[in-house]
Design a protein that fits this description.
Blueprint: H1 6-15, H2 21-68, H3 72-78, E1 84-90, E2 95-96, H4 105-109, E3 115-117, E4 129-131, E5 133-141, E6 144-155, E7 160-168, E8 174-181, H5 195-199, E9 216-217, E10 227-228, H6 235-248, H7 255-262
Parallel strand pairs: 9-10
Antiparallel strand pairs: 1-2, 1-5, 3-4, 5-6, 6-7, 7-8
Length: 266
């Protein structure tokens, strides 16, 4: 029975020569096991702190992005500074998501099942697939939505373009645009980040009276209420912005949500 006594076995193990293969493998295994336990414990203990840090970083990015929309600070101030709300919406239904919150959105979008593959004919923004859920920001006057800030994304001349599109409560009049990520050609397409150009979106009509999306970036000077001036030498980037706005304002993007807001159902 002594051979089965743990203390006896441990002492016998310690008496093995250091060059013993058995002792080397056993020590390596024990060190790996201890390290694994320590890493697991640290992960569990730090998870709440990491979640708090991620939430704080997300909030800081959100505040910076919203502040970049021309005139948004003044609009929020006019509404008391606390009327801006964050909502996760179901894009297909055009309603608030039932089971996804801002805190769980990242986890939801990590699931392939929560993405919709777009047929080529529908994928005018060149994104390949569209998330089924999106986080948007609403400004209300009483119970009425007065401004919606909608994240949009598309493929530009040199790569991905991300932006925030601000739309007035009628869901037809633009309030502004803020490009938050782009890789366009410096001095040409990259000029879409210039505040003056972004401010030219304010007051433009995204759709006509029938609801058809008409917005476009012109190839030169804007020719009507649905157009903004093009950027010289950046026609492809301008076309990319046109397609982005048209896609996200259409039936595969925020179209169902915008229609619900116009009907006073959101």
């Amino acid at each position: 029975m002594a051979d089965l006594d743990p203390l006896f076995l441990w002492r016998r193990f310690l008496t093995l020569p250091n060059e013993s293969r058995t002792k080397t493998l056993a020590v390596a295994f024990l060190v790996s096991a201890v390290c694994a336990v320590m890493v697991t414990a640290a992960t569990v203990m730090l998870r709440p702190i990491q979640a708090q840090n991620r939430a704080a970083e997300q909030q800081a990015r959100l505040e910076a992005l919203i502040a970049a929309v021309p005139g948004i600070s003044e609009l929020v101030a006019q509404s008391g500074g606390d009327a801006l709300s964050t909502v996760v919406i179901d894009l297909d239904a055009g309603t608030a998501a039932k089971d996804v919150t801002p805190e769980t959105l990242s986890a939801a979008l990590a699931e392939p099942a929560n993405w919709t593959t777009l047929p080529a004919a529908d994928d005018i923004a060149g994104i390949g697939s569209r998330p089924d859920y999106a986080q948007i920001y609403l400004l209300r006057e009483g119970e009425t939505v007065s401004l919606a800030i909608l994240p949009i994304v598309g493929t530009g001349y040199n790569g991905r373009i991300q932006a925030l599109l601000a739309v007035r409560g009628d869901m037809r009049t633009l309030a502004g645009l803020a490009v938050t990520e782009q890789a366009e050609t410096p001095g040409l397409g990259a000029r879409i980040t210039e505040p003056l150009w972004q401010q030219s979106f304010a007051g433009k009509s995204i759709a006509d009276d029938t609801g058809a999306v008409r917005f476009a970036v012109a190839r030169g000077k804007a020719g009507g209420e649905h157009e903004v001036d093009g950027i010289t030498g950046a026609t492809r980037t301008g076309n990319a912005i046109t397609r982005m706005v048209q896609f996200w304002a259409g039936p595969k993007g925020y179209g169902p949500l915008m229609a619900a807001i116009r009907r006073g159902e959101f």
